[in-house]
Amino acid sequence: EKLGLNQLRERYLKFFEGKGHLRLPSFPLVPQNDPSLLLINSGMAPLKPYFTGEQHPPRKRITTCQKCIRTPDIENVGKTSRHGTFFEMLGNFSFGDYFKKEAIPWAWEFVTQDLQMPLDKLWITIYQDDEEAFEIWNKDVGVPAEKIVRMGKADNFWEHGTGPCGPCSEIYFDRGPEAGCGSPDCKVGCDCDRYVEFWNNVFTQFNRDEEGNYTRLASPNIDTGMGLERLACIMQGVDNLFEVDTVKNILMHICKTAGVEYKKSEKEDISIRVITDHIRSTTMMVCDGVIPSNEGRGYVLRRLLRRAARHGKLLGIKKPFLHDVAMVVINESKQAYPELEEKAEYIRKVIGIEEEKFDITIDQGLTILNDFIAQAKSGGIDKIEGGIVFKLHDTYGFPLDLTREIAFENGLEVDEEGFKNEMSIQKQKARDALKTKGAAAWGDNIYSKLDKSITTEFVGYRQSECHARIE
Ligand code: ATP
Ligand code: MG
Ligand code: MG
Ligand code: MG
């Protein structure tokens, strides 16, 4: 029998508890005391104060399964087999305690003994100059030299400006030639879906100073990250991370709502996978206290929800449906994230309101856009006018990237300069209006009623959940 996603998460955390790690619950997606980051994008991100020494960790060995959002990966979603804007990252961390000599053999033990992955499918990458890692993989663990691939700084060196940094080593799984691009040059590191990177082990051993000098840290750290969905995809032998057990249940629900069958048409499948991904990320974001708005993380949420709504239209779904699908997400993940169940009603409401709001204007907006596209095509125009893009944004609630996506599907671009111009004209008008009319000029915020009844209060590191609730 195949291990489910929820079982795999538990297997990993238990394994590292067995190696002396303290298990902490996932931190919220909204960073606490970290203005440099919009949303948590790795297991390491919320633990940064422990790495820099600003704070003392409750134990020198910690293991977590962290909720992550990576919106820069949005273009890949539904197209590659391995990217989501939301995913869960398993991680084991050492704060000045164990290092490569332990981390590498443990990773191998988990993958090859605990999970019994076939040895011949596994590949290792290391940073080109990391002889220490090579020796451990080759001599201690017994991986043949030809399966240890050396990579450059771009791929296998983790560094973020100044501060702690270091080489990393990744584990890849070969899904076979059928899964790949078929190019004779296809090898580990190829962008196609054959060799799937699933576990990154970062060896934070240097400090980088202002001048770019690297000095060895007295007590180096370990920071690892393994995508839970990717692991499940490999272990369950499915095509992509949307076909992993719990995620597939969400996908099937969407198919049922739309009355379409999965794997009948590639175009529909992309829409199905986009919705599946975006409803996961948005459900998790709302649960952690993000509310749709026109800026910051609220806008990230809005863009994802509206993109999902539009792909729903493409599948022929006529009425708001995302708030229902959110309930499936909650059901599949509540075991690991009990806060989802506690806030189910609240999540349903927030997503429902946003959907209803967009539902009023989306059809009109699409009609205007499609008319313009038809005209442009017959008139030899290759750009959507800034004025139209702005009107879609301002009157019909189309985020710029949504208009861009639709334009792109039709072989057109959008006039971004023109759009930005219109935006700044509008901002100036709003500023002028504010001067003459006062705060009332800001108009009605659809969430204001809801806002007042929600208390969003973060209670810090020890407790993973935020208390957003409807009284
Ligand atoms: P890729 O090269 O595939 O985009 P990455 O090198 O950006 O991945 P890391 O920053 O090394 O990823 O993150 C550690 C692990 O998290 C990856 O090895 C992978 O298993 C998982 N991961 C990263 N991005 C995603 C994503 N968008 N969706 C699902 N899992 C992901
Ligand atoms: Mg990436
Ligand atoms: Mg990578
Ligand atoms: Mg990586």
TrEMBL record:
A GO cellular component annotation in the UniProt record: cytosol
EC number(s) given by UniProt: 6.1.1.7
Boundaries of every Alanyl-transfer RNA synthetases family profile domain copy: 3-471
Cell location: Cytoplasm
Cofactor note: Binds 1 zinc ion per subunit.
Essential cofactor(s): Zn(2+)
GO biological process: alanyl-tRNA aminoacylation
Name of protein: Alanine--tRNA ligase
